[in-house]
Design brief:
By secondary structure, the chain is mainly beta. It has a single domain, classed as Glucose Permease (Domain IIA), CATH 2.70.70. The protein contains two helices and 13 strands, in the order ββαββββββββαβββ. An eight-stranded antiparallel β-sheet has the order 9-5-6-7-11-3-2-12, with no helix packed on it. The chain has a three-stranded antiparallel β-sheet with strand order 4-10-8. The longest helix is centred in the last third of the chain and has 6 residues.
């Protein structure tokens, strides 16, 4: 009867097609030691990074290498594309969504030039870090496996 009171499910999905790894495996201490929060990573096989949740884009870094999101249920997360990519000052990235817009899980947010990044020798591991509102274990059964962009990794 009161369907509008139902909590909208917010599954966490893969932000990219590629190999899903534990955040502890990311070769950067800020992420692997969970200094920014717990999460997971995907080593992308393609060039598209999508929203891992349905929610609002609250921030896109000026350097286009990261974006922040918030869900209706209060989960806050950061998607960080690659290691040392901030130093590119946006070169090689194309933003496909705007801050303040609502997106669905699996909807493309940023695309990167794969050949350009490979030419620079950059590690493009893409981290999803929970910065607030998510305090459960990262019980992802796809660790070490290839995942599809938008594949559900953590149901809610």
């Amino acid at each position: 009867m009161f369907g509008f009171l139902k909590k909208e499910p917010s599954p966490i999905t893969a932000p990219a097609a590629g190999k899903c790894i534990r955040i502890e495996e990311v070769p950067d201490a800020v992420f692997s030691q969970k200094m920014m929060g717990d999460g997971f990573a995907v080593i992308p096989s393609g060039d598209t990074i999508a929203a891992p949740v349905t929610g609002e884009i609250v921030m896109i870094a000026e350097t286009k290498h990261a974006f922040g999101m918030k869900t209706k249920s209060g989960i806050e997360l950061l998607v960080h594309i690659g290691l040392d990519t901030v130093e590119l000052n946006g070169e090689g990235f194309t933003v496909l969504a705007k801050p303040g817009s609502r997106v669905k899980a699996g909807e493309p947010v940023i695309r990167f030039d794969k050949a350009f990044m490979e030419g620079k020798g950059l590690n493009m591991s893409t981290m999803v870090v929970f910065t607030g509102g998510y305090d459960r274990e990262m019980e992802i059964c796809q660790y070490g496996q290839d995942v599809a962009l938008g594949e559900i990794l953590l149901p809610e």
